[in-house]
Each structure stands twice: as structure tokens, then as C-alpha cells.
Amino acid sequence: MKSNSLWSDALYRLSRNRAAMFGGFILILLIICAILAPWIAPYSYSYQDLNLGASPPSVEHLLGTDILGRDLLSRILYGARISLLVGFVATGVALIIGVSWGIVAGYVGGRVDSVMMRIVDILYGLPFIIFIILLMVIFGRNLWLLFGAIGAVEWLTMARIVRGQVIGLKNQEFVMAARAMGVSNFAMFRRHLLPNILGPIAVYATLTIPQVMLLEGFLSFLGLGIQPPMSSWGTLIKDGVESMEEYSWLLIYPGITFTITLFALNFFGDGLRDALDPKTTDS
Amino acid sequence: MLAIFVKRILIAIPVLFAVASITFFLIKIAPGGPFDADRAVSPQVLKNLNEAYNLDASNWEQYVDYMSGLIQGDLGPSFRFPGRSVTEMIATGLPVTFELAFYAILIALLMGVFSGVLAALKRNTFLDFIPMAIAMIGICVPTFLMGPLLVLIFGINLEVLPVSGWGQLPGDKILPSLTLGFAYAAYIARLSRGGMLEVLNQDFIRTARAKGLTERMVVIKHAMQGGLIPVVSFLGPAIAGLLAGSFVVETIFQIPGLGRFYVEAAFNRDYTMILGTTIFFSAMIVFFNLLSDLAALWLNPRSRDT
């Protein structure tokens, strides 16, 4: 029952942290909007009103329209789907690679550990952003490739964190007892190691999502990420920049949305960290 | 120290070799040759082109050829700009990118260290909250948004600074350097605040105060040396980030630096240029990581003697 009280404790601390709760609330709101986009968006994201062209915010178009007369609010809502999808899926990819790598390195230990961590050290020092661009250029700008490429870059820190945690757990009595009872390796991971490192994993995953979204925005901004007719917030900002001299709302509203989302994710992640590990509150 | 240095160099060389090889073969398996993109050329011309660029040799021969050129600093000819070599293009873009990165790091260090140290000293006052709130903005507003917003405010609405260019109009270096530097200023402010808070509670600080040093001396001579180690270790990875930032900033402000060349090469499928710059960037980043690790090691008295 100890693990229960840890989580309920953390939940209580989290609920006392106003910034984190606010961040979480914004996030839930955004996710709901993204899921319901086809039903709540006032227009289709590709519906063009060429006669209207770029128009400032009005009653019919709350956030205005772009050069092709497309409703900006609808495009932001649909963009949320892509941006959040990239954020969650690529973080998931990073999570799977990083956690398995870290658990194996930490649990097996010895030479396997030092080789695996040396690989992580070396990869840390390489300019991954360039490799992502390289992959996008060579294999075409494909959404699934983007998930994989970003995920394949962001797992390194996760592997380090998990390894450290596993090494700490490995020598505790309950793990040794389980091993003495002949618990298989897989069962050991699933029943004894994983539940105990879920906290740090959850914290780091929450803090990885904004980084992934930034990376996607960066690639889309350069024109190497999401391709039309699909749009993410990164591509909306890119389009906004191209016409910001006359139609500044096309840059400002997608920019605000993106920034608020990153704020929310960072506040929530920081709050989660403080809640799960009260010792680090000051840093 | 020397042993660590030599060991790190010895690791770096095979790593860079592997990077060069992997990139080379990745580009070889890329669909489409460099000359069949935009216009149809006659088979004879194509054959001559392939011959001129040594593309009809076997992959292995090309690889050996490229690698032996690489050792001598020759990165081959550009596919897109006939008559110009990749080495030459890197040499033109590099000083610009270096200058931009230098100003950005300078801004980041000045702003970041100053506000971080101040925040740590005036903990839980408004001198702590305000810089940290601004730092949070710096972290959450990406470079590709910050740059255009600065252009919109200072270049277009207030018309006080040029909106693009590098070294052509007075003051045109300010906005790009600020854009690139601001995000790092935010990280450095947070890191130096955290590092200072940790150090300020330690015994040797109390000793320094007890022996009657002025607060200014305590902070500058004793606390900052230890408290800023995280900042020094961050500088190496920051260089890698600056590189990515330079792609964006050089694109926004139309600065003829290495970052813009790389993005253009990626669009033009100028494969030799991509290959050459990738190897070059990797080498630079490995080098700067090494440098910042050594500096952090040197600053930390506990690891200095070993």
C-alpha cells in the first residue's frame, strides 16, 4: 500500500500548486479542443473564401482569416491536433527507447552498462538536429518519420535518468529477495522496477513534450517538417511570418497559442517534479 | 587533466569518422541523383556530369576518395554551385556564423549571469521573481517566434532597427544577436541562480563572511567560482543549440552564414554541401563540448588535482 500513499501524497501536493494546476487545466482544455476540432471548429481548415482574403478578426471569423480566406481559429484548432500528436507520439517513442535502454544498462550493469552508457555519452555530443534534417531531406517529409526521428533524438536523457534510478533500486532488499525467489527478468522489470521509477519517468516525459513540440515547430518553420495541406502550429507561425507586415494577426495568434501551451506544459511538469520529489523544490 | 584530454580526443576521432561514413552512405541511398531534379538533361550530358563528379565510380571507390580528401580538408565540389568547393563555401559562411554566435553568447552570459546571481542573492523578493518570470518567457517563446516578433516591434512598427541583413546597415546585427542570445540568457539565468543558491549555503561562504570580507568580495571571489560551474558545463551543449538557432535566425534575417547555407543545401538537395557541413558541424560540436567539459573540470577544485 506504500506506493498508493506516495501517489496520493503527490496528488495532494500537486493540487496545492496553483501554477501547475493552471497548466494542467489549460492542457486538458487544449487536448479536448484538439480532439473535438472537427465538431467545434467554425469552418473546415481547408475552406477558402478567396473573395474575403486576409481579414482581421471579426464576428464571423473570431481570429481573422489568412491570405486564402481560411478561418484562422479553425486552422489553429486543427493545428493543435498535429502539434499535440507530434508532442505525445514522439515523446512516447523517446520513452520506449530511453526506458528500455536505461533499465537494461542499469540492471545488467558491468561491461554492458559501461558500453551502453558510453554510446549515450557519444550520441549526446552530436548535432542531432542536423541528422533529423538529413533524414527529412533523404526520405521525404513524412509524418511518421518525423515522430521516429524526433523520438530517436530525445531518449538519451531518459536513458540516463532511468539507469540511475535502477542502479539505486537494484541493491535494495526487495529486489534481491525477488531475485532469490527466481523471478524472471521480465517479471522483475514489470513488477518491481518499473512501478518504482514511474515517478521520475512521468516527470521527465512531461518535460520532454514541450521540447519535442519546439523541435517540430522549428522543423516546420524551416519548411522541413509538416507539409501542406496539413498544418501544425509551426507551419502556421511560418505562414504568419511571411505576411506579418500587413497581417500581423496571422503571426500573433498562432504564436500566443504555441507559447501558452509550452508555458502550461512546463508549469505542469515542474509542479509534477516538485510533487513527486519534494527535495528538489528549490532548484 | 592531460590524460583526460588525450583520452577524449582519442574517442572523438573514431566518432567523427563514423559520423562521416554514416552520413556518406545515407546520402548514397537517397533516392534520385543530384542532377535529375529540375530539368531533363540529355544522357550524354548526364554521363559527362557524373564523370566530372566521379559519380560513375563504385560507391566504395567514391567513399575512399572522399575520405582521403576529407583528411586533407577537401570536402569536394558543390553539386549546386559548379566551380565552388564545399570547403570554400564553409570558409565564407563560417566567420559570419561565428560572429553571430559570439554576440549571442556574450548577450546570454551578461544577461543570464547577472540576473541569475542577482535573483539568488535577493531570493524571494521581486528582484528574484521578475528575472525568473522573464526567463520562463525566454524558454517558452521559441527563437522562430521571438525573431519575427522583434522584427515586427522594432523593425516594422517602431522602425528603429533594420529588419534583415548583416553588416550592411548600422545596427542590423542587433536584432539577430538578441534573438539568438535571449533563449540562452534564460537558461543561463536559471542555471546560475540554482548554482549560486547551492553554494551560498555552504560553510566556506560562512567562513569568508566571518573573516570580514565584504559581501561583494564573498560573491565575486568565492561564491561565483563554484556557483557558475553549471553554466560553464552548459556552454558546450549550448553551442550545439546555437547552431540550430542559427539556422532559424539566419533564415529570418537573411544572413549569409553557414546555417542558411545548410538549410538552402537541404532544400536544393546539394548533397556534397550537406555532407560537408554535417561533418564540419559535428567536428565543431565535439570540439566545443570537449572545451566546456575541460573548463568545468578545471574550475572545480575537487577534480583539479586528479
User: Outline of chain B, from the CA principal axes?
Assistant: flat
Number of strands of chain A: 0
Which percent band covers the strand fraction of chain B? Answer: under 5%
Mean pLDDT, all residues of chain A: 84
Rounded to an integer, what's the Rg of chain B over CA atoms?
24 Å
Low-confidence stretches of chain A: none
Largest interface: A-B, 40 and 47 residues
Return the string of H and E elements of chain B. Answer: HHHHHHHHHHHHH
Tally of contiguous helical segments of chain A: 10
Tell me the series of helices and strands of chain A, N- to C-terminal. HHHHHHHHHH
Chain oligomer state: heterodimer
Total helices of chain B: the number is 13
What is the share of helical residues of chain A?
over 70%
Give the class of chain B from helix and strand content and strand pairing: mainly alpha
Summing up helix and strand content along with how strands pair, one would put the structural category of chain A as mainly alpha
Fold and architecture overview:
The complex is a heterodimer of chains A (283) and B (306). With 283 residues, chain A is mainly alpha-helical. In chain A, 75% of the residues lie in helices and 0% in strands. Chain A has helices at 2-16, 18-40, 72-108, 110-124, 128-139, 143-170, 173-180, 185-221, 233-242, 249-276. The model of chain A has no long low-confidence stretch (mean pLDDT 84). By secondary structure, chain B is mainly α. Chain B has 13 helices and no strands. The chains are: A mainly alpha (283), B mainly alpha (306). The A-B interface holds A 122, 124-127, 129-131, 133-139, 210, 214, 217-218, 221-224, 234, 237-238, 240-241, 244-245, 248, 251, 255, 258-259, 262-263, 266, 282-283 and B 11, 15, 19, 23, 26-27, 29-31, 136-137, 139-145, 148-149, 151-152, 156, 194, 197-198, 237, 240, 243-244, 247-248, 251-252, 262-263, 266-267, 269, 274, 277-278, 281-282, 285-286, 289.
